[in-house]
Write the structure tokens for this entry.
Amino acid sequence: MLFNSLDFAVFLPVVFILYWFVFNKSLKSQNFLIVIASYLFYGWWDWRFLALIAFSTLVDYIVGIQLEKTEKPFRRKSLLVLSLAVNLGLLGFFKYYNFFLDNFITAFTFMGMPIKANTLNIILPVGISFYTFQTMSYSIDIYRKKLNATRDFVAFSAFVSFFPQLVAGPIERASNLLPQFFERRKFDYAKASDGLRQILWGLFKKIVIADNCAEFANTIFNNSSEYSGSTLLLGAVFFTFQIYGDFSGYSDIAIGTSRLFGINLMQNFAFPYFSRDMAEFWRRWHISLSTWFRDYLYIPLGGSKGSKTQQIRNIFIIFLVSGFWHGANWTFLAWGALNAIYFIPLLLFGKNRRNLDTVACERKLPNLREVLSILGTFMLTVIAWVFFRAENMEHALSFLGGIFSLQLFETPDFYLFPGAITLLFLIIGFLWVEWKGRIGEYGIARLGLISSKARRWSIYLMIIFIIDIFGNTSEEIEFIYFQF
């Protein structure tokens, strides 16, 4: 079920009414409704994969209890290995089986030892990369004795399958989300209003920005040999805003929907395209995944401690794993490696934690140095996104070769793309709103502080009007991160 679908527009109010007016007698019944609604939400896509979520939930529920029961080091490690093996095994089979098999065959063929093996027609379960990481963090935290195991299977199931963030995050920690299923929840009008506001902004990002950018980005990337360097750069920029509008839009809708049910999720994006260097970018982009890798991979490897060689090794590992998490393609590994290359000079010169504040937080506009830093960081990001979007390495390199040619200085082929200039103006307006709201959790969060009800509603209606005029509301377009 898609957030931008008619099905969800019916599903959400029904669950909301049942949650607050029918199942509000007890916390247990509300949690049970969340589990049923979440399984229905996920099963709407393909009911067969509900067994995977149920199995992963059951394994980590049992592992958590058993970890808490024993102090024997060998048994505790065995239980943790069991949890990791089940979760990573499921993820590896569905997401990476054919990738490893194809490269295994290619390697042996290259060495003059051709082998025959059949790939499998495997359907990737939506959201498997997200909920497996969420359940793994639960077992790891109990193993580290940072969290107590729960005996309430319904509450734990609600934590694993909570429908707003089930398919594409944020990847929540048990320490934040799980306790909320044990607290009595009362309807909070202010929180619900803020949730609806964030949902509206998320829909704007998805329908107006991401989906319109996708139309041009897809055409340019799919026919890249036919266009000039400047047009290829335009396509890369459109994809840069497509993936941000699409993914952060999903997160906004997920967080806003959760607030309707009295649940708080972590912020997943913090205006990353206003970053002044790549270290700041990665503190602001897909925060739930970045912090997951930081806490469960980077720090255990030694983090920023040790020699410079060890630090560089750790950076490369975390970025390569992050790239591979996104998909079974060498382009994702190249994307991760390039971001590591961007990051390492900041680490070596001790500047990776230079920009911890919000840019121009006490000023209306940035100064010249900040503008140049933002533009430089943005262009590095655009180049990296080419690898993320390209079909394969050859496509990525030829696309970049086309950009970095003399044709880069030509005027883009706007005449081939009716509406592209209008979209650029929409993006500029979008960036202006995001800039104005960069202190808050999302672009229009501060609208709630406007005392005039008429003024607030006029802005809401204007956003809805823009969605209706510029959005393709007749077609349900999937979110990019469903494939991850």
About this structure: The CA atoms of residues 344 and 350 lie 10 Å apart. DSSP finds 18 helices and no strands in the chain. The two ends are 16 Å apart (CA to CA).
